[in-house]
Amino acid sequence: MVRMVLSTMNSSMLKIIEPYRKWVIKNPQLLADLEKTVQCLSYFTAGHFHNSTFTSELIYSVSNLIVLFNDLLMCSGKRMYIKFPQFESKIKIWLTVVEYTETLLEISAKKLGGQSGKWFMITVIQIFKTVLRLLLVHVYKERIVKNPPIQPLNREKLNESKDEKLKEGFVLKRSGTVIRSIRGTDSIHMRTWEPLSSVAHDNVNLNSSSVSEKNFKLAESLYIIKPLLHLGCISLTGEKQWPPWLLSFAVDLLSLKIYNKEAKAVSFSTEDEKELFTRRLALLLYLLKSPFYDKYSRIRIYAVLTALSKNVPFARLLAEPIKKYLPHWQSTYFYMWSS
Predict the structure, then answer these.
(1) What's the pLDDT score for residue 229?
(2) For tag attachment on the chain, is the N or C end more exposed, with fewer CB atoms within 10 Å?
(3) What pTM value is reported for the model?
(4) Rounded distance, CA 61 to CA 104, Å?
(5) Which is more confidently placed, 189 or 128?
(6) What are the counts of helices (DSSP H) followed by strands (DSSP E) for the chain?
(7) Residue 190 phi, psi (nearest 5)
(8) CA angle at residue 187 from 182 to 189, to 5 degrees?
(9) SS3 229
(10) Taking a C-beta distance cutoff of 8 angstroms, is the pair 190, 213 a contact?
(11) Which letter does DSSP use for residue 27 in this model?
(12) 185-205 pLDDT, tens per residue?
């Protein structure tokens, strides 16, 4: 009886969103332009009116959730509805939703419950994220968990990639052999009769040693539990102290060192390489995290912005707003250990 009710509700909702789904699939570029416009509103609203922080985060979170929803619709292809038969897919969706909304949730908790409400929300969010990410690594054998797990689609290349797949062919799941598509077949006198090159899958190097796989799990597990280690250290030493900063920095360096060591023997997929590059780049954010920012970075950053504002034409238009909002950005975003 319950299944019949859910099925009826599901079909009714699908009938409502089906016209929108068709429009989304037919107009990916226009959709991308609209999404970027909405996302830009979050930056323009910051600091311009009362409760601008909450409003800005609300717009940012909602816009990203809309992008995620549209991506899921586009991934449904020609199907009449979206299916997520695997629990792994649901985990990634929930993690992506939390990644997009965690700052909004923290700000809301602080407004309602003060500092205690803020830290309670932070703890709940980080435990939730840690458990789900560890499930992806140890149960579903995800080598590197992306941030966010469901990456936004590139709308500009979406149609191009579809055409290339139709022209190139398709891949057999077990053997990885590429079968040439009839649509992509040239005329007889133009054919080379050479087999297509094999396509690299996301889980590359299936024959890699068990030692390497254990090291990958160790490196990713360290990166995943880093927020909880940071929280535990803060509870002992307090905020804006050196031990939590040093602990997080050391864990990041150790995780990346393990990955770099294994990269000599095992190659990564393009997506994994991008994620590791992002993590290396994120090490620069430690310059903006307290206490390093309070003792060293802040004075130098303000000096550079002031020099640019005085000596470079029109730089004042950009430098002055940055100087104005930098304390707010630093206290709201760059204290986050998971960034």
Answers:
(1) 95
(2) N
(3) 0.78
(4) 7
(5) 128
(6) 11, 2
(7) -105, -5
(8) 140
(9) helix
(10) no
(11) -
(12) 544 444 454 554 444 444 444
